[in-house]
Amino acid sequence: MTGPVLATLVTVTVCVPDAKTTSPTRYCNGFPRILTQVHRSLKFRIQLIRKMEVLLPKLPSFKFSSPICCCSISTRSSSYVKFGFRRFSSLSVCASTVNEAVAEPSLGSPSLGHTTRPHFPILHQEVNGSKLVYLDNAATSQKPTVVLKTLQSYYEAYNSNVHRGIHFLRQVYAKATDQYEAARRKVASFINASDSSEIVFTRNATEAINLVAYSWGLSNLKRDDEIILTVAEHHSAIVPWQLLAQKVGAVLKFVNLNQYEIPDMDKLKELLSRKTKLVVVHHVSNVLASVLPVRDIANWAHDVGAKVLVDACQSVPHMTVDVHSLNVDFLVASSHKMCGPTGVGFLYGKIDLLSSMPPFLGGGEMISDVFLDHSTYAEPPSRFEAGTPAIGEAIGLGAAIDYLSGIGMQTIHDYEVT
Ligand SMILES: Cc1ncc(COP(=O)(O)O)c(C=O)c1O
Description:
- The protein is an alpha/beta fold and 418 residues long.
- The protein has helices spanning 42-55, 68-71, 112-116, 145-158, 170-190, 205-220, 239-248, 265-271, 294-303, 323-326, 351-356, 391-407, 409-417; strands spanning 97-98, 126-127, 130-132, 199-202, 226-230, 251-255, 276-282, 307-311, 330-334, 345-349, 367-370, 375-377.
- Strand 8 (307-311), helix 10 (323-326) and strand 9 (330-334) form a beta-alpha-beta unit.
C-alpha cells in the first residue's frame, strides 16, 4: 500500500499580503508550506510551470523570466539526476517580489498564510519597491519573531554552558540548563516520544543519521547484512550508509519508483528478508512529495527483525508525527526546516536501542567517569551529546515548536493540502 501524494501544486507559495488584508486568495500564503522543493517529475514540473504562469503574472511586479525559474527550486539532492532532473544552485523565484496593491484578497476570512505572514520579519522587507516572495521552505524555513526573540533573550540574558559550570552566575547557568532540557521535553512531546531521554540533540538531521550509522550501524551490522533504502532518499540518508557498508561489507538495496513516480512499496516488501537489518525511508519526500506508509513499513521490517530509521525532515514541520503510533526505531529532523534556528536537529531513538549503543563522538558531557586509560559513558541522551551543544539554538527550536503547536499541526496540514 502506498500513501497519498500530497497536493504540491498548490504549495507553491507566493507571499504577498499584509496583516491588514482580511480575505484570502488561494495563491497568497505566508506560512512556510509543505514541499516546495518540488523536483517531482517532468510531468509535475510542467504542471507547476503552467500553474505559476497562471498565478504569478497576475501580480504586476512579478517577473516570470522563463519556465526555467520553476525548475530551479533548489535541492541538494542529486538522487534524481538520473531521472533527468537538472540541478540548479538557487531558486530565482525566491528572490522575486510581488506588488502589494494587487495582492489584497477580496473574499472570505483571512487564510493561515495571511494571518501568519506578519510573524516572519524577513518577509517585511521590500525589494525594488515590492514585497519579498519566499518559496524555498523545504530547503530551509524562515523564522518567526518569537524564535528570533528567544535566541536574542538567551544570548543577552542567560548565555551559559549547560550541565556544568558552578560559578557566580549560578542562576544564569541553571536557567540555560533548564531551558535546554525544557526544549528537549518539547521535542519529545511534539513527536510523542515516551520520554525526553529518547531525544538526542544533534547539529542537524544529517548528523543524526550519521550518529545512527556509526554508533548503531558499526556495532550491529556485518558482512552481507542488508540495508533497504528508496532511491528518493536525501543524500544525507544515503551516503552515511554507503560509508558504513564499505566498512563492514553490508549491502545496500534500493527500492525504485513505481509507475506513479513514488517509491514502490510492493518492491520494498519483496526486498525484505532475514538479511535485512535496517530500512531507511523518508516520511515525506523532498523530491517527490510522496508520503510513505511508515507505520506499515515499520511492521513489515519488524516482522523480519529489521530496524527502521525515518527521515522526517519534511513531515515534522507540516503534520502531526507520532513516533509511538508509527512504531519506528529511529527518526530524525532538522530545526531549521521547522521555523527554528540552524545548527540544531534531533534524533529520536527508542530508549532500549539508544541505551545499547556506544558513543558516536568522545568528549565532555558524554562521560560518566574518565580514567587515563579508559572512560565510562553517560546514559542517553548525554552519551551522544559530546561537547558544548547548540544551547541557544535548541532553546530556539523549543520556541519554534511552541509556535507550530500554537497554530496546530492538524491546522497546518489541512491548510497545506487543500
Ligand atoms: C528529506 C530531507 N532529509 C534530510 C535533509 C538534510 O537536512 P540537514 O541538511 O538539515 O541535515 C534534507 C534537507 O534538505 C531533506 O529535505
